[in-house]
Amino acid sequence: MSQSSGEGCRALGVTPAPTDEPLALRLTSQDFPCLDQFLAADGGLTDSPVFLTSDEWGLVIVANEQIIPSTRYAVTAELAGGAVSAQSWITTPPWGDVIGNGPGALPDGNVNFSDIGAVVNCFKEVLTAPPLHRCDIWPAAPDGLVNFSDIGASVEGFKSIPYPYAGPCP
């Protein structure tokens, strides 16, 4: 079993349970049955399993166009010998939700002025700003930048404007 969290409305955090045996991490979603891929060590997704020990995996941040707000994902650890763990479920927070209450807190399911301010702080590169993967919510495929479009997207989430991009299924 893996420890998993909705790191942001566009990001998941996955840490596999300790084991010396190499394992692959599979990501699926009941919301999007077409999504059935493996995590890569860099947080990308691939069709082929990547086998690493839990120490080699560490915390993996998955932030790409397949990770969208208010979606339930499942992570399963698959050992090289064929054994499979129970699923660990993660639900991403709503569109625009990037922080919770207090410094460093994970998103709390509420989009408010604190979230908008947090994205502004990411843009300004304030030392206490949340990590990039929480603030990089625009465009459909996060681009590794925080700019006015990300700030505008946070405002849209606050205004309850729906997530503007298609899900991971064609």
Can you give a write-up of this model?
The chain is α+β, with helices and mostly antiparallel strands. It is built from four helices and eight strands; from the N terminus they run E-E-E-E-E-H-E-E-E-H-H-H. The protein folds into two domains: 2-91, Immunoglobulin-like; 113-158, no CATH class. Helix 2 runs antiparallel to helix 4 (148-158). The longest helix has 12 residues, at 113-124. The model has no long low-confidence stretch (mean pLDDT 93).
**Average pLDDT for all residues:** 93
The CATH architecture classification of the largest domain is Sandwich
Q: In terms of quaternary structure, what is this?
A: single chain
Low-confidence region ranges? none
Strand content: 15-25%
The level of helicity is 10-25%
Count of helices? 4
| Biggest sheet character | 5 strands, antiparallel
Topology (SSEs and partners):
Layout: E1 2-8, E2 11-16, E3 23-28, E4 36-39, E5 45-46, H1 54-57, E6 60-62, E7 72-79, E8 88-91, H2 113-124, H3 132-135, H4 148-158
Antiparallel strand pairs: 1-2, 2-6, 3-4, 3-7, 4-5, 7-8
Helix pairs in contact: 2-4
State the main characteristics.
170 residues, globular, 8 strands, 3-stranded antiparallel β-sheet, 4 helices, Immunoglobulin-like, alpha+beta, 2 domains
